[in-house]
Amino acid sequence: MSTYVAQRQAAEQRYADRRPLSKELFERASAVMPGGSTRSVLDMSPFPFRVASAAGSELVDVDGITYVDFLGDYSAGLLGHDPAPVRAAVTAALEHGWSFGGVHTDEIRVAEAVVDRFPSIEQVRFTNSGTEANLMALQLARHHTRRQRIVVCDGAYHGGLLYFGHGGEALLAPFEFTRVRYNDIDALTAIDDSVAAVLIEPMMGAGGCIPAQQEYLTALRRRCDETGSLLIFDEVMTSRMSAGGLQQRTGVLPDLTTLGKYLAGGMTFGAFGGRADVMAAFDPARGGTLTHGGTFNNNVVSMAGAAAAMSEMLSEAKLSQLFARGESLRSRLNELFTASTLPLSATGVGSMMAVHTVDGPITGPHDLETSDHELRQLLFHELLHRGCYIAARGFIALSLDITDEQCDILVGAMSEAIDSISPSN
Hints:
alpha/beta, CATH 3.40.640.10, 2 domains, 4-stranded mixed β-sheet, 12 helices
């Protein structure tokens, strides 16, 4: 049993005492929505604070408490809150209407930008979310290969219908899935000529910000080539690591890539694309027989926002600077953790990382099974008390608005939190 139960309970009571209006609104919301929300990841004990406003890298809740936002809407908020170029583009686009039932120019601009950026994408189609993008990519792979089986990694999250963790029952799309261990080269023997596709993140996001080892990705690419299985990179989160995604940094290119979230400034957006011969299944002029519906696939708001984001905000220089800032922050946090008596470590790549309450090397979700959940919740509340918002599970995703000074604030808050909850105190 964790030694931090009493401290965690006290921290949660302190939290509740400071947020009476959030508590009142949670009780009201719970009467009409199961759990008081329609997004399970936002659940937190004893109840979530309710956001009143956001600007730049800060949030303000309904009780008037301000937080530095180190969560970045679970990576969707890469551009920060209310990015001016995106707002201007969306406002201008709405002047001409927004429900056309037809194609429009911004759709072309976004597609050209995606193809130009990502080395593996020759053609692309748009969706409403990363979940949809992954579902469409999987169905496309099954169509292309005339096979049924899909290989995924245990503990992975690829969207609301593609969750392979162990934290409770999840909704799962009706595909034939085979689970393997992440970063386990020996497990790649599960990929054979019955496998349509392997769906994988080059760094696990929701699974704990666990990077794929270079030799593992290389072996995975080789195995897919040998078996004729399509390799799908879910870069909904990790594409922020450079203008061409994490695949550009690793040099390992998939057959299909899925995208989402931040590319449209945090608005509804998803995309899947890759080899032209595979994507041809959607082209009736080339004999394609697949259809792809979705009223809002090319919606005016998301397309305008994405065009502005990629042309004005998501430059290689800005993403490289953010990558370096994240690398520095994670290194500084791990220095604190090494000097501490608590079982803490941080994993990740660039501007995405996760704080874990477990000792030892972490190569996959299987290494997190001994995590101290009470300590993790306590640490979350201690950081929140000091004005730093990360995910309750320890996830951190920096936005472009986060400064070096704010990273200093997080490191200082983490140091204070560690001192306050150390078993010796």
